Amino acid sequence: MKLISICALATLLLTTTVGLAQSRKDQKIMQDAQKAKTTLLETSPGLERFFEDSAGYVIFPNVGKGGFIIGGASGNGVVYEDGEPVGMADLKKLNIGLQAGGQAIIEVIFFETDVDLKRFKTEKFQFAAETSAVALKSGIAFNAKYKDGVAVFALPKAGLMADASVGGQKFSYKAF
Hints:
The relative contact order is 0.19. This protein has one domain. The protein is about 30% helix and about 40% strand. It is α+β, with helices and mostly antiparallel strands. It has helices at about 1-45, 50-55, 115-120; strands at about 55-80, 85-110, 135, 150-160, 170-175.
């Protein structure tokens, strides 16, 4: 009986520790997402209308991309609905082709309607191979439009890479 109690206590402590570690990681990502939103709006004030009018959006504050012939990207982000955080998302991409370098970017995906946001949250959402992000420069977001219910923007943070595609990115979503 004593062994069972010790095992139960050990399991509880391990579960609590893992939960706290994940919670801290999520909190850090949420803080980074808020900073990323500020940076995006400072860089391209035209995004304000997307933040205000979209059904929801996901901000990936630190997407790492890299490759030489074979490349990949990954990042964690926060999903917002009506401006409020509702969950966490992660992004993965693997591709083969002419590419070289490495880059860190901020990526934001806006969902035009509730149906588009729900599709992201309930399916294993991914972009078609030809989809690309609008690389943000001052003023460019004013002319951007939704395509198939989404609008994607990327802001380079560091590094250099000759690839602006987001096609083939796969996402997963976990509600709070």
